[in-house]
Amino acid sequence: MRVDAVTLFPGMIDTPLSESIVGRARAEGYLELGFVNPRDFTEDRHRTVDDKPYGGGTGMLMMAEPVYRAVKKVRKKGSFVILLTPKGRKFDQAAALELAKKKHLIFICGHYEGIDERIVPLADMELSIGDYVLTGGEPAAVAVIDAVTRLIPGVLKKSDATVNETFTGGLLEAPHYTRPAVWRGKKVPEALLSGNHKLIAEWRASMAAKLTGAARPDLSGARPVKKAARKAAK
Ligand code: SAM
Q: Which CATH architecture has domain 2-149?
């Protein structure tokens, strides 16, 4: 998959996505990540990308033209353009699965007070990572690119990893334990030590239901995305 980020601060995305699993996915060619900086598409001496908002108000707004030109530079037939904004559709695992099917994603990262509204029609999707306001779209791009990259077939060496996990089955995942079997007086649940696969599966299903009911009752009736996850893992 190819991903381009339109950003004034490429390091805010490049650095965190150079580590661990995503870093390896880039090194192995599963993810090609590029950056395009609106500042490179300005024409004045100061390479100005922002200006004061019409009608007054605090802060500066990114101007439409440098962003437009940056997107134009990387957009091809079949590209899918995502505008990161707290006003967008809330990002979730179902959205990650949808985006993982695309060949080319372009993320537009706002900064300061955001971007001139006239940029909105350029996007195929407006996306928010949650009901809070970040300083810029860059940390949001990192979260979305991370969640999408791990769904690219081959990135996780065990394709099952993305099928049996939180949200994919419409529930939170059951808790996990590793050695030692007793840690500071706390024991691993008996069922997990039994070696009986049926019993383990039943324990996990009941814990997932219990946990979801207690922590995220809103998810209990959620549409499972397991089928799509299984397909994506193939
Ligand atoms: N003035 C804007 C408002 O009140 O809606 C907030 C602008 S925010 C400080 C600057 C940029 O950060 C936004 O243009 C957007 O790209 C990004 N951003 C902030 N919160 C976000 C979120 N929850 N999800 C995605 N992007 C976000």
A: 3-Layer(aba) Sandwich (3.40)
Strands 125-128 and 104-109: unpaired
Q: Please list the residue range(s) of the chain that carry CATH number 1.10.1270.20.
A: 168-233
Q: Which of 12, 13, 85, 90 gets mutated to test ligand 1 (max ligand atoms within 8 A of its CB)?
A: 85
Q: Using one digit for the tens of pLDDT, what is the confidence trace for 44-76?
A: 999 999 999 999 999 999 999 999 999 999 999
**Pocket flag, ligand 1, residue 3 (CB < 6 Å):** no
Ligand 1: residue of 133, 135, 138, 146 to mutate (most ligand atoms within 8 A of CB) is: 133
In this structure, which long-range contacts are made by residues 151-160, counting pairs with CB atoms below 8 Å and at least 24 apart in sequence?
151/96, 151/97, 151/100, 151/229, 151/232, 151/233, 152/1, 152/25, 152/30, 152/31, 152/100, 153/232, 153/233, 153/234, 154/30, 155/21, 155/25, 155/30, 155/31, 156/21, 159/233, 159/234, 160/233
Q: Which residues of the chain form CATH 3.40.1280.10?
A: 2-149
133 within ligand 1 shell (Cβ under 6 A): yes
Can you tell me the mean pLDDT for 109-126?
Answer: 98
Give this prediction's pTM.
0.93
Specify the ligand 1 atom closest to the Cα of 136: 12
Ligand 1 nearest-atom number relative to CA 127: 25
Q: Is the pLDDT of residue 3 over 70?
A: yes
Residue 233 above 60 pLDDT? no
Q: What is the CATH number of domain 168-233?
A: 1.10.1270.20
